[in-house]
Design a protein that fits this description.
- By secondary structure, the protein is an alpha+beta fold.
- It folds into 3 domains: about 80 residues, no CATH class; about 110 residues, Orthogonal Bundle (DNA polymerase, domain 1), CATH 1.10.150.130; about 180 residues, hpI Integrase, Chain A, CATH 1.10.443.
- The protein contains 15 helices and 9 strands.
- The strands form 3 sheets. A 4-stranded antiparallel β-sheet has the order 1-2-3-4, with helices on one face. A 3-stranded antiparallel β-sheet has the order 7-8-9, with no helix packed on it. A two-stranded antiparallel ribbon has the order 5-6.
- Strand 7 and strand 8 form a beta hairpin.
């Protein structure tokens, strides 16, 4: 086995499965000594229908451990494995799990994973703190039962102000991630989300997570609605700032930016001046497909906005800081809703959440307008910065129908030969039968 950083190669001792390793990394030393020796033991356990090789440190030479003592410790572990009992390391992990609350595990482990793999980790943290922590934050993994999870799910769906199935699905998947990571790291042995039951002759999960059939925004703004929205935002910004009104002087510019480039709300809030390149006339936007920021040509109207706002700013400054704090905006949905209500764009559509105008409707309108203009699907995918083209396909419902025109064009481009008299072949040519 390859040695770890700061350690020499292990050497085999006279006892089976026991190795001696000299440690030179100061972070691994005990009692402040310059050098120390660790005793490693190796063994195999049967996990997931296969033998898994295990290696662990049982003691240090400076603490009085010897190869013989390590061999006896290994024998105890093998004896427990043969009897189906937990090893000392597994017993310690079990004890830690029993004292480890879900809230603490989320803060110390899940959030570290979220920050490394999820660009919207702040939203996941806010959802956990709002909906999950009050119920499960102080509980250990062992104390949570499938019945508790199902009851919590049903309460969120049926309370006075219920959450949508899509929102509940997100909450339960965050909690599922806690259990999945805890099992992968050995903190718990069983993930209750993986338990199944038989219903109507089929094996289904014991804890059902809502699976909404359609969570896509169906409504796109017309050009007239978009102009009305921007005019209302400009009028709203001229009023003195009041908490009850929620006026925002930058909202008109943010709406136009989202309509022209299909930006998400989080992308608008996080946009920095270093992402605006006037010399090349492009804007750096996050590309989900390439997992990096990619330059996109800046629309003339957007460039005019940036030129008007750019004086006296550093590259790291936000383009649209909060009107009061001057820092990153926590939420632009509240002031945007005020403007939408003032423009009466949701009037008569209060009962259908997918027909309401929200900030993401601006991005949906951008994709819809591209499709209506006859832009091909690959170009729409690039401009929308979709990682999967399946997300782009739904905009093809708004594309013009060119089928009749294409059929006529194809028919005119090729004329089938008409039947005519057979030509005499030269005497040296043998006719070949046609293959079908």
């Amino acid at each position: 086995m390859a040695s770890s950083k700061g350690s020499t190669t292990r050497t085999r001792t006279e006892f089976t499965g026991v190795y001696l390793r000299e440690v030179t990394d100061p972070r691994k030393l005990n009692q402040g000594k310059k050098k120390d020796f660790a005793f490693d033991i190796t063994y195999k356990v049967w996990e997931d229908d296969k033998w898994v090789h295990k290696c662990e440190v049982v003691g240090w030479k400076s603490e009085g451990w010897t190869a013989e003592k390590a061999f006896k410790a290994r024998a105890v572990i093998l004896d427990k494995i043969s009897k189906g009992e937990l090893t000392p390391k597994q017993e310690k992990a079990k004890a830690d799990a029993e004292a480890f609350t879900i809230g603490k595990f989320f803060d110390e482990t899940v959030m570290r994973h979220q920050r490394a793999n999820n660009k919207t980790f702040q939203r996941a943290e806010a959802r956990f703190n709002t909906h999950i922590r009050p119920t499960f934050g102080a509980l250990t993994f062992k104390e949570v039962t499938p019945a508790m999870l199902c009851k919590w799910r049903d309460e969120m769906l049926t309370r006075e102000k219920p959450l949508s199935e899509a929102s509940v699905s997100i909450m339960m998947n965050i909690l599922h991630q806690c259990f999945r990571l805890a099992k992968d790291l050995g903190t718990i042995r069983h993930n209750i989300f993986e338990q199944t039951t038989v219903s109507k002759g089929r094996t289904v999960p014991l804890i059902g997570i809502p699976n909404p059939k359609n969570n896509n925004r169906e409504r796109a703004l017309t050009r007239e609605e978009a102009e009305k929205l921007i005019r209302t935002a400009i009028e709203w910004a001229e009023k003195p700032y009041q908490v009850t009104w929620g006026s925002d002087p930058d909202m008109a510019d943010m709406i136009l930016l989202a309509l022209k480039h299909g930006l998400r709300a989080q992308e608008v809030c996080s946009l920095q001046w270093k992402d605006i390149v006037f010399q090349g006339n492009f804007i750096m936007l996050w590309d989900q497909k390439n997992k990096q920021k990619t330059p996109f040509r800046m629309a003339p109207s957007v460039r005019a906005i940036m030129e008007r706002r750019c004086s006296g700013h550093n590259p790291e400054d936000l383009v649209f800081p909060g009107p009061r704090s001057g820092k990153h905006r926590e939420d632009i949905c509240v002031p945007f809703k005020k403007i939408v209500d003032k423009a009466k764009l949701n009037q008569g559509r209060e009962d259908d959440p997918y027909q309401k105008v929200v900030f993401h409707t601006l991005r949906h309108s951008f994709g819809t307008w591209l499709a209506q203009a006859g832009v091909d699907i690959k170009t729409i995918q690039k401009l929308m910065r979709h990682a999967d083209i399946k997300d782009t396909l739904r905009y093809m419902n708004f594309a013009p129908d060119y089928t009749d025109q294409i059929i006529d064009t194809l028919d005119a481009s090729f004329s089938a030969p008409c039947a005519g008299p057979e030509l005499d072949l030269p005497p040296n040519v043998i006719p070949m039968p046609l293959k079908r």
